[in-house]
């Protein structure tokens, strides 16, 4: 379990039946909107959901530009208070900004004393979470920590030589153990990710709580398909292994006339565009860059199949969004993706990095008769239904109040054959 000397000893849960007053929640994040990634999206949607339920939500995050300070921001249609910290750009990365580490305790103390939150919920241990957890613990404020981070995801942006990277990973996990050890409860999006965090930090009792999505925001299409369109959504970076997807598309039969749409931006964009040229598929590949939420939903609806070749997903919000759009999914059999994709039910898993296996699975889906394709599409809708964001928000509300929680059940019941 997290550190038993944590703040929960001084913040007892409310008596059963007591009126549940709105809470003041301070969410700390090293990445937050306008950043586009799974951790930032989760924090944004959680914050908006809490505001919609009447809670007073404050965000502590690096400033997205040189402008820093405290002001009101609107996210997902809800207004919250943002405390944007003076930040520096990390130039090896294409957009990342970070709060100044040696100022974080001072800034955390100042904001906590101004806001007087009932609970502090940090989204990573790196800078903001470390400062907030130290100062919240001093004041006996309940702390919840959520991990979306794998040290390996950042190594390509550190400029460290490979021979020293393993040592750096070890240091990162030790730092995570110290920060998450201050929390009363620690969460991460899936059971696989929770087991992973426990293994590398020594923590126990990590909760598996899905990031969740609002499936009603997405539009399934069960009509006849007029083209074969593969979709990828996510950061265009090395660990996503988009090069494997490009090579698989190049290996597909020309008769399928397959199109590939890649939504997202990142440091590998130019390299992948050059690879598409080399593979002679540039005329069939569209790199859209970042898009609006409405454009993203349209991309899901018009796709035939969703491909996720990444080997470093702690959950994959993009995959869940695709499933809510009734897309069959072909995903790497790595990290938490098998939690969402089940062979023959809503798609297929392929051997990570294996171009031929990915191409074979994509070709199989793209050539399925409509009746069999619809089985996979309905399977995606059924499995993702267990990841409703309202359940996620309710679970965090209970954690914020110090109430015991059972991890939400996100394993959908297997499909049952009908007599039709």
UniProtKB/TrEMBL annotation:
The record, for InterPro entries, names:
Glyco_trans_1 (IPR001296), Glyco_trans_4-like_N (IPR028098), Glycosyltransferase_grp1 (IPR050194)
Q: Tell me, what is one Gene Ontology molecular-function annotation carried by this entry?
A: glycosyltransferase activity
Read off the Gene3D superfamilies from this record: Glycogen Phosphorylase B
What are the entry keywords?
Glycosyltransferase, Transferase
Q: Where is the Glycosyl transferase family domain?
A: 226-373
Does Transferase count among this protein's keywords? yes
Give all residue intervals belonging to the Glycosyltransferase subfamily 4-like N-terminal domain.
36-215
GO BP annotation list: carbohydrate derivative biosynthetic process
Q: Which domain of life is it from?
A: Bacteria
Q: What is this protein called?
A: D-inositol 3-phosphate glycosyltransferase
Q: Name the source organism.
A: Leifsonia poae
């Amino acid at each position: 379990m997290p550190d038993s000397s944590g703040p929960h000893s001084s913040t007892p849960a409310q008596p059963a039946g007591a009126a549940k007053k709105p809470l003041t929640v301070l969410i700390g994040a090293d990445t937050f909107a306008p950043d586009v990634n799974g951790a930032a999206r989760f924090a944004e949607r959680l914050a908006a959901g809490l505001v919609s339920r009447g809670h007073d939500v404050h965000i502590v995050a690096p400033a997205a530009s040189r402008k820093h300070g405290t002001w009101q921001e609107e996210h997902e249609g809800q207004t919250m208070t943002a405390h944007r910290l003076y930040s520096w750009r990390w130039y090896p990365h294409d957009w990342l900004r970070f709060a100044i580490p040696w100022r974080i305790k001072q800034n955390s103390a100042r904001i906590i004393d101004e806001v007087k939150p009932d609970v502090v919920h940090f989204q990573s241990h790196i800078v903001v979470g470390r400062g907030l957890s130290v100062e919240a613990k001093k004041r006996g404020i309940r702390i919840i920590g959520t991990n979306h981070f794998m040290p390996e995801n950042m190594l390509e942006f550190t400029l460290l030589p490979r021979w020293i990277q393993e040592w750096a990973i070890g240091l990162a996990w030790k730092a995570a153990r110290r920060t998450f050890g201050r929390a009363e409860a620690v969460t991460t999006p899936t059971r696989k990710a929770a087991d992973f965090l426990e293994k590398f930090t020594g923590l126990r009792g990590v909760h598996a709580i899905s990031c969740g999505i609002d499936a009603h925001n997405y539009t399934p299409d069960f009509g006849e398909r007029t083209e074969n369109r593969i979709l990828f959504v996510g950061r265009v970076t090395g660990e996503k292994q988009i090069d494997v997807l490009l090579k698989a598309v190049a290996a597909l039969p020309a008769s399928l006339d397959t199109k590939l749409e890649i939504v997202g931006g990142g440091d590998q964009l130019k390299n992948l565009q050059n690879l598409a040229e080399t593979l002679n598929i540039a005329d069939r590949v569209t790199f859209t860059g970042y898009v609006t939420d409405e454009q993203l939903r349209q991309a899901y609806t018009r796709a035939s199949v969703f491909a996720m070749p990444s080997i470093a997903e702690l959950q994959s919000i993009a995959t869940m969004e695709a499933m809510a759009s009734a897309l069959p999914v072909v995903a790497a059999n790595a990290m938490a993706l098998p939690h969402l994709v089940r062979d023959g039910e809503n798609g297929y898993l392929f051997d990570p990095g294996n171009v031929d296996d990915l191409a074979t699975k994509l070709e199989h889906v793209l050539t399925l008769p409509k009746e069999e394709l619809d089985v996979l599409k309905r399977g995606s809708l059924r499995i993702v239904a267990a990841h409703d964001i309202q359940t996620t928000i309710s679970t965090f509300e209970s954690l914020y109040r110090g109430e015991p929680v059972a991890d939400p059940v996100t394993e959908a019941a297997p499909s049952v054959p009908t007599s039709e």
